[in-house]
Automatic annotation (TrEMBL):
Belongs to the bacterial sugar transferase family. This is Sugar transferase. It comes from Mycolicibacterium obuense. It holds the Pfam family Bac_transf. Residues 318-507 form the Bacterial sugar transferase domain. It is found in: Membrane. GO terms for molecular function: phosphotransferase activity, for other substituted phosphate groups.
Length: 512
């Protein structure tokens, strides 16, 4: 294949920079080979981890429900072998469901909640099949056995995936296990995408070049981004050659409008022959997964964006989750609450709890309950503290050097123990376990649509903002995260946030 002029000039530019073109080609070829190897290795690790979690789950359930073989009464050996056979069948069906749900798809690796959703869905299908089969064929499986295997296995599967994600993110932050990407789009969109990939390094994308629509200028031009300069290697007519030259793993198209239908279709065929993935930005931000549906009309794929759903059965399901988790957490944490209450009272003799009006569901105000972490009557000093900290005009106020915080209060905030009394708000129905943090009346009112959108869901004890940096997050990013949660709420996302909250609290990131 003859390289177009832009690509030929790019090769010349490389030589002018005293670098061998053959050496560069060898490096990118080796990089792509390494990328293929790590993907295969990671997939094997995921499958092996899932298999271990499933085997452990059925073994624990069998031993817990039926005991060990030697501890069973005479004549129970046959029954033990029968139950063991059923456990093996359950494990096989479970792993098959994980495979059929494509939960091992490498495109889900390390990002988003879709991977976790498929694990949960596959588990539900596996146990549904086993339960129906048991009912129809009278297999004799005790419900207690399934009731143990289900939670143990699901927790093991999700924990295993989470640990693998953390390991992969750690390696990607060091520049390993990444996919090389060529971006086709205008300079502004190239910069935006590079900044996104830099901010989300766990996604594992590294931009190695750009193609600008209708670009005919000098090759060697570079686009400055936060991650460094990105060389311009061609235009929309030389994309396939540039991808081949750089051995890119993927082509990211920020807008397909300038390509046309025929050119876009031809490009997909060319990328398919090169074994390169195609990533198309739909022009919409912060809309994910379940809300996006592709519905073709006259062979033209159209994105349909479903409206966010927070009412009806979904509302009651979330309420049931809040009641169960809130009750269990309150019972388990009661001793801690008693000790903290005694410590606060002993410290300065002031009130144990801090109560304040906050904006809740549908904009209705409620009284939030927290352990007091500041000096009594500290509300009168709020404006002074805002001025001292240089946040008098800020949308939100949070200061790491707030002089009103007591010594014990600073520790309570670092450990997030001051939030525990909000479990009473959860049980009362004014808050949820997961949701945007409740705002003080008037806070955030200057941001268009912010208060209205947040009012669609109940505020939460923890949320996407808390597990994404907490007080270290900028006001703009906090607003974006709150909008993202409201627009894309799902059970799986809530579960992921709860699991991430445990890590965030232990690491104490952004807590003050």
């Amino acid at each position: 294949m003859t390289a177009p002029p832009l690509v030929r000039r790019f090769r010349s530019t490389i030589r002018l920079r005293s670098e061998s073109a053959d050496r560069v080609m060898k490096q990118v070829t080796e990089a792509k080979a390494r990328a293929s190897q790590w993907k295969k290795m990671h997939r094997r690790h995921v499958i092996a981890t899932d298999a271990v979690a499933v085997v452990v789950a059925v073994t624990v359930a069998q031993v817990a429900r039926f005991g060990l073989p030697e501890s069973t009464s005479p004549g129970m050996g046959d029954h033990w072998r029968y139950v063991t056979a059923c456990s093996i069948i359950l494990a096989v069906v479970w792993l098959a469901a994980l495979g059929l749900q494509e939960s091992w798809d490498l495109s889900l690796t390390g990002i988003g909640s879709e991977e976790y959703r498929r694990v949960v869905t596959a588990t539900a299908w596996a146990f549904g099949i086993i339960a129906v089969t048991d009912l129809l064929l009278q297999l004799g499986l005790v419900r207690g056995y399934l009731a143990i295997a289900l939670p143990v296995g699901l927790v093991g599967l999700l924990a295993g995936r989470h640990l693998l994600r953390r390991d992969l993110a750690r390696k990607r932050s060091r520049g390993a296990f990444t996919s090389q990407v060529v971006v086709l789009g205008k300079p502004r969109s190239v910069i935006a995408l590079c900044n996104t990939f830099n901010r989300c390094s766990h996604a594992g994308y590294r931009v190695v070049g750009a193609c600008l629509p209708d670009y005919q200028g000098k090759v060697g031009l570079e686009i400055d981004t936060r991650t460094g300069p990105v060389p311009v290697l061609g235009n929309q007519h030389s994309v396939a050659e540039v991808v081949s030259l750089t051995n890119a793993d993927a082509l990211a198209v920020t807008s397909a409008e300038h390509l046309g239908h025929e050119h876009m279709r031809t490009l997909t065929w060319q990328l398919d022959s090169l074994g390169t993935d195609l990533i198309v930005m739909p022009g919409m931000v912060d809309i994910v997964g379940p809300r996006l549906k592709i519905r073709p009309i006259d062979n033209m794929p159209l994105f349909h964006v479903a409206r966010p759903r927070h009412d009806g059965a979904l509302h009651y399901h979330k309420r049931f989750f809040d009641l169960v988790v809130g009750t269990i957490a309150l019972v388990l944490l009661s001793p801690v609450m008693l000790m903290v209450a005694a410590a606060i009272k002993w410290h300065d003799g002031g009130p144990v709890f801090f109560c304040q009006d906050r904006v809740g569901y549908n904009g209705i105000q409620f009284r939030i309950v927290k352990f007091r972490t500041m000096k009594p009557e500290s509300e009168a000093e709020l404006e002074t503290e805002r001025i001292v900290s240089g946040q008098s005009d800020g949308i939100f106020f949070k200061s790491a050097t707030d002089s009103r915080i007591t010594p014990i209060g600073r520790w309570l905030r670092k450990t997030s123990i001051d939030e525990i009394p909000q479990l009473f708000n959860v049980l009362a129905g004014s808050m949820s376990i997961v949701g945007p943090r409740p705002l003080v009346p008037g806070e955030g009112s200057s941001v268009e649509y912010f208060i209205e959108r947040r009012g669609l869901v109940k505020p939460g004890i923890t949320g996407l903002w808390q597990v994404s940096g907490r007080s270290d997050v900028s006001a703009a990013e906090r607003i974006r995260l709150d909008h993202f949660y409201v627009d894309n709420w799902s059970y799986v996302q809530d579960l992921v946030i709860v699991l991430r909250t445990v890590r965030t609290v232990l690491q104490r990131h952004g807590a003050y």
